Amino acid sequence: MGISALTPPTRAEDVVETLLEFPDNRLLIDLCGEYDRNLAQVEHQMGVHILRRGNRLAVIGDKGTREQAAAVLQSLYARLEAGRGLSAGDIEGAIRMGRPMPDTPREGAEQIEMFGPGQVELRTRKKPIEPRTEAQKAYVANLFANELGFGIGPAGTGKTYLAVAVGVTMFIGGMVEKIVLSRPAVEAGERLGFLPGDMKEKVDPYMQPLYDALNDFLPAKQVQKLMEEKRIEIAPLAFMRGRTLSNAFIVLDEAQNATTMQMKMFLTRLGEGSRMVITGDRTQVDLPRGVASGLADAERILKGVKGVTFNYFTAKDVVRHPLVARIIEAYDADDAKG
């Protein structure tokens, strides 16, 4: 990609900087950002200093951190070479990934683009989607490689968002014929009473996060058309009984609010040529007191079953506002005291 790393000719233990040379000055300007704000973000989050010297960047710091920061800058430059833009979130993702990683297993490789060191990109109709942490990257890889995958972890870690992105990617690539998105219609600690309207209007408020994810990946008119054609279905968990879902990408969101019987019912809907993803957060169970969560039972029962994978997320994988990660860590610490 036209980047060279230069090290001053001194003893290794004396080296305090790594020089990176970038041949395209226009891309280097984009890499640095307005008023060098992109470089400042890397400096602040990685604990290094970055100096610009013509078409070179000098990364100053201890050896390990310096090499990781240099790898981040190289991956961001590769992203620009591939014609992608740079946002604060993209830089955050590159920093989380930290260093070059080996290639991801690539079933459906025509729908996954690799650029830069170990980066993965899912292609949707509206925008490309990239995992921003190692846990997210492993999750996406497992969803392509296995027929049934679980994503378990706190809010904001991209469990549902990435699952829907993979589903849209497989749908666009012809690997599945339809997308089925479901979640239990369970209220989060409130009793709202009977909602007005027909059945769709009654359940839509519970399904809104799934609509939001779909509309991020597909044009609104296309989503509407595909829903009318039943090639995209969004329905409460209770509507799944008695069905066999073949050649479909199926997502059960908020699975911690499914009972054991509901979970078994849903898992056995899996038909030929289908993929299924179960996402949930064990700390946010809204079931009545004394009712066991089907997610916990499935995790216990299905561990070690061939074709079933489990991916776990922590506060370190939160990709919403940074404060969300600190809130989750504070609650986890309080639970640990109890």
TrEMBL record:
GO terms of molecular function: ATP binding
Sequence ranges assigned to domain PhoH-like protein in this UniProt record: 129-332
Keywords, comma-separated and alphabetical: ATP-binding, Cytoplasm, Nucleotide-binding
InterPro entries recorded: P-loop_NTPase, PhoH, PhoH2-like
GO cellular component: cytosol
Name of this protein: PhoH-like protein
Main location: cytoplasm
Cited Gene3D superfamilies: P-loop containing nucleotide triphosphate hydrolases (3.40.50.300)
Superkingdom of source: Bacteria
Subcellular location(s) of the protein: Cytoplasm
Pfam families the record matches: PhoH
Family according to the record: Belongs to the PhoH family.
